[in-house]
Amino acid sequence: MSPTTRSTGGSGHNKSFANPGNTLKGVIALTGSQSGQHREDFTSDEMKEGKVLYFEQVDNLSGKAIYRMQIVEASASRLVFDVENVSTMRYFFIPILHPGELQSMYFLDRESDNVWRYYSIVRTGKNANGLIAGNESSSVNRAVAFYRYMVGIPATQEPPAAR
Question: For 10, 60, 79, 89, which has the most beta carbons within 10 A of its beta carbon?
């Protein structure tokens, strides 16, 4: 399972998310850091410590962006990975985040057979465009959407966490 994709049908590697109000439109695994290098989803064998993987994400705020994901730690009881944009993110053609200005770190720890703890931290660069400031509800909804995906709650089952 890739922590970045959930299948709802389609070509097998372009994942769409049916969640009204969620900004995430789809994720595509890539063979490298360039757009257009589509491939099948990442396998569990690829999700090993030190491995660097690339994916393209499309959302209705920043459009299409390419990300680097590095697996920091991977075991049966813990998964830690970081994600960083490698392409410029734009809002209506205006650059809002240049490469490396959006960084996230995700931690998943097994508490028991059926319980995982999840937490993450996100930062934007000091040169990030002011257009992205003050959108706390978007950040909350993204974190909750990721959590819901990880625990198997259908994206359309619950209302948005923040409005």
Answer: 89
- Is 24 within a domain? yes
Domain of residue 50: give its range. Answer: 14-151
Domain-located, residue 65: yes
124 closest CA partner among 114, 135, 113, 112: 135
Domain membership of residue 106 (yes or no) is yes
| pLDDT string in tens for the chain (163-residue length) | 334 333 333 333 444 444 444 466 778 899 988 878 899 999 988 889 999 999 998 877 667 889 999 999 999 999 999 999 999 988 778 888 899 999 999 999 999 999 999 888 988 888 777 776 666 777 777 777 777 777 778 777 777 666 6
Q: What amino acid occupies position 128?
A: A
